Queue: 2 jobs
Job 1
Amino acid sequence: MEQRDSDAGAPTLGVGMVGYAFMGAAHSQGWRTAGRVFDLPLRPVLAAIGGRDEHAVRAAADRHGWAAAETDWRALVARDDVQIVDICTPGDSHAEIAVAALEAGKHVLCEKPLANSVAEAEAMVRAAEAARARGQVAMVGFNYRRVPALTYARRLIADGRLGTLRHIRVTYLQDWLVDPDFPLTWRLEREHAGSGALGDLGAHIVDLAQYLAGEPLVGVSAQLETFVRERPLLRGASAGLTASGGAERGTVTVDDAALFTGRLASGALASFEATRMASGRKNALRLEVNGELGSLAFDLERLNELSFHDHREPAVTAGFRRILVTEAEHPYLEAWWPPGHALGYEHTFAHQVRDLVVAIATGAQPMPSFADGLQVQRVLAAVEESARKNAVYTPVPAAGADEGAGRAAQAVQAQV
């Protein structure tokens, strides 16, 4: 499926990306950068970017280094120079684009959350399983797994440094909706976004909890709230974030905040808070994992650091110690800067590309798989059901055999 560069003799991987806004820019950075930092078995080529607004998508192509622009995603999928389709659109189009791309023989990378519903996610998993039999791969883009400190935390937990897990607590706090006059964008409309803070932020922290623990959530008890139920309408599709000058307002159909507890398969307890209404918090993702032998803590605002406590040390000297995750022996760091030179948010997308390209070249299943994305979707659906029932404990449906095998492979896969 890959092409060969006739000049350099190096195998290339033609990339087509649908979507060009915030995530499109972040993914473009990853595709541009990965091959210049890591020794990849395939060289990503930015073949085409797609979007409905011809002027905007052309400007994005020029800004981010894409060779061509398309205004119809179907035309992008059909291009002979595209071997992988990267989906960075709102959730309401994920399933249609992903299934079509897989059926067209392409590899697929899809942004999180995988879909807007469990049914859509299940259809995507079926398409991915059929494509896998043809040698294609599909991956969902939970980029925080690629923060070196969090990848290292997963390694420590898998190695038994915390012993039996007892608690996981995660919060993801933002404040961009605090202003009641912030306009009604697509992220605030259920038909486009699927859900609000729950899907946007909650999907990340559910995936991180399951990734770090190496096991799924089996039940939740939840509350959701929409604090501002009407917001100003935008002037038009190209109005950016400019609200209408008049008093016309539209209904917010998603949650502003999600608060829920959960139980992992092993019996460990978990708690989650996701909100876009926390004044003063811009992108505050914090987590802590407690086990019988120790604890780990992480703060995204200090993303090169991991706090570790070994409970077996004498009490007189024990406590959390700071691990600066910048050594060449730490995940992904062998290709970057000397120890102590920090990485940032954008590097997670280069790491994501590194792992995906290696998987394509070796025929391995990249993680997280679409089955992993479906598991997250089932947790989100259980959260919504629990909230509708006023925080009643709601089981998360068990995965099928193929999905369980995917998670088992994730749990035992060698960490980078």
Note: Residues 235 and 245 are 8 Å apart (CA to CA).
Job 2
Amino acid sequence: MITLCKTCGTSYDTASAAVERCAICEDERQYVPVEGQQWVALTSVVNHHSNKWQQHEPGLFSIKTVPKFAINQRAFLLTTPQGNVLWDCIANLDQATRALIDALGGIQAIAISHPHYYTTMQDWAAAFDAPVYLHASDREWVMRESPALHFWEGDALDILPGVRLLRLGGHFAGGTVLHWDNGDGALLAGDILQVTPGADRVSFMWSYPNMLPLAGKVVQAITERLNNVPFTRLYGAFEGQDITANAHEIVIQSGQKYIACLK
């Protein structure tokens, strides 16, 4: 039986023993609610939720669970002539989502920005016979093993033609973004880069719910790694976090402003 943490959506195998503590939530980058840890069966989430789809540009769809569940992030399905990539993950994999993805050509690879969005990645991998690419620096946060998990090292990994993973660190040691080279370029950022409410800035945090910042030297390293990466659009982890023009300039300027505020 697969059980989910109601706060973060991380999945645990409870077939042989019950789970009482969520290691992801007990880490200082997340939190345990005041009312304590709560759990829900994966089957219950599938039965009582559905997924909303949105097309952002040709070849790029977001998938978000409604009503809100856990952290409430969205996943992205990137469709390319060389194959499709699921970027980040949500817990709910219902029959409608399976049918829509199958109709779009399935999934050839799954990649996830950081452990808060691992959720039910093992089930998505099994459903579509796809490998899951996780940065090796975050291996300790995997709560369910799967033969589909592939741990990569270094700062960059090409998973399909024109689709590259970039390790930026920051929020987690293996914090990763996806660069889509489709002309002028797009960046799928998870919340390794957090788009602000006006969608004209980004920020950088070690813990978002606990409002713990990153050191200036870490933010400088992040922006330096992106300095020569071409992208004009950036899509964040949550609905409405879309920067549709001048995204590269916005990220670099936001990093400079962040560092200046620490002085």
Note: The helical segments are 23-26, 42-48, 95-103, 121-128, 216-226, 247-262.
